[in-house]
Amino acid sequence: MLESLGSLTGSPWIYAVVAVSVLLDVFLPVLPSGVLVITAATAAAAGSTTVADAAHKVTEVAPVPHEVPSLIILMLCAASASVLGDFVAFRLAWSGGDRLDRAIARSRKLTSAQARLGEALSKGGGILVVIARFAPAGRSVVSLGAGAAHRKVAEFLPWSALAGVAWTGYSVGLGYFGGQWLGASWAGAAVSVLALFGAGALAAFVVRRPAPVQHAG
Fold first, then answer.
1. Where along the chain do its domains lie?
2. DSSP characters for 146-171?
């Protein structure tokens, strides 16, 4: 499996695989989209390191890979797929009808998230959308909750875009700088993935924390 993933990062198909994975993980949170983004960014770090070594060692011939992922294209693919996936989930939940409403009503997590999200968006505090993007399944809960609550697209989509850019930038940064500092190896990628999971755990704590009670006075 590791060999297959390693060969994939040296192929232009990595962009399509990352985009599809990020697009679909709003519906299937088990997809390893973050791991794919980090691995591709680590491969980019490997390519840039090899090129730099070749430039400084004139007497040695360094093997420079013909194809390494472009960080800019990688970020564009992942961020665009993130926003598109959020919007699709949002629209499906918007038009889901009574069946979806009943399903949300049966889930205390979805009901609570829907209430908190609606309050946050109405006050212009959609930073909750950004934080939830890092939490496991938080993206799904927020996108479906916003759609089921019939929030305005103008209220939700800009925050979704900011969330996608923030999550993509963080994931790519982890992979790239982890590869630069720790070496472009599976160990370096593993440390970067652990850092992504750590951010997810922190985001989950923030999202699940009860909203402060407002006292009249």
1. 2-208
2. HHHTT--HHHHHHHHHHHHHHHHHHH
